[in-house]
Amino acid sequence: xxxxxxxxxxxxxxxxxxxxxxxxxxxxxxxxxxxxxxxxxxxxxxxxxxxxxxxxxxxxxxxxxxxxxxxxxxxxxxxxxxxxxxxxxxxxxxxxxxxxxxxxxxxxxxxxxxxxxxxxxxxxxxxxxxxxxxxxxxxxxxxxxxxxxxxxxxxxxxxxxxxxxxxxxxxxxxxxxxxxxxxxxxxxxxxxxxxxxxxxxxxxxxxxxxxxxxxxxxxxxxxxxxxxxxxxxxxxxxxxxxxxxxxxxxxxxxxxxxxxxxxxxxxxxxxxxxxxxxxxxxxxxxxxxxxxxxxxxxxxxxxxxxxxxxxxxxxxxxxxxxxxxxxxxxxxxxxxxxxxxxxxxxxxxxxxxxxxxxxxxxxx
Length: 364
Description:
Blueprint: H1 4-7, H2 11-23, E1 28-32, H3 45-48, H4 61-75, E2 79-83, H5 91-98, E3 102-107, E4 123-127, H6 131-139, H7 145-152, E5 159-165, H8 173-182, E6 186-191, H9 209-221, H10 230-238, E7 240-241, E8 244-245, H11 262-265, E9 277-278, E10 285-286, H12 302-310, H13 320-336, H14 347-363
Parallel strand pairs: 1-2, 1-9, 2-3, 3-4, 4-5, 5-6
Antiparallel strand pairs: 7-8, 9-10
Helix pairs in contact: 2-13, 9-10, 12-13, 13-14
């Protein structure tokens, strides 16, 4: 039976693996930087479950935030995913996180994060479709938000577009991707959950096969710009991983200090032992990043699914192809979040996609 050392004979594969190990393990948390937002996007998980109301007691939130930083540093946290709310409404807090932790941030793109003071920050800029679809879903068609975001982050290599695709809007994918690339940005795919029950083109229950096929085609066309691998795309959109089906029982990013999660932590499935999803009071936690009570069948969150693959390394050691699927998923997460020492010019992405394509052909 082949061993890990056998899989690392290829110098490129060995370098990817070494880069991850040199970057070190992540002790991550998720943080709502603020409960306020300058949009009300249709189907936003944060407001659909009224997470903006999860503020414990009164008190000075800025003081609580400063205490949170000190506490998490002492606890060993070294990576923070910033969500909310709209983080750019509190650039002072965002800067404090940036200077104390490795991190990433998701933003709606309306307010540009300055370069000075945020020079190496990974910025995921939301887009939910072409100009018309994006405007309709994110602000009732009042403004062309996609155009505003493109302008704010033109040729800004910190920023990638975090493209949330609806099942029935797959025909827009190439147009959106091309516009992002022409703007000087890369693209990471996410998948629309339809928590607002719009139905039709937006209903996740229709499945993402056509979206999956179109994303794979984008990888072929634009390998230097796509931050999603074929394997990651397959796992996320199918909800399948080594005989398991995606859901709360296997989700790896659940708050470990949240009492209702106690049974999940004892069920034998792996999880991130350090993880907590903090509310915007900087004190309390909730079940997970993207939910309080929602059914996980509607969760296609990219970060959650990256983690599901990443913590299941041992299951991916059965063959060279399986190991490459794990390694490239792991590396992609580190690459997106600037945890590895790369130029981020896209050449590395193209080599990763080519490696995966070669392995797929050999094992087909």
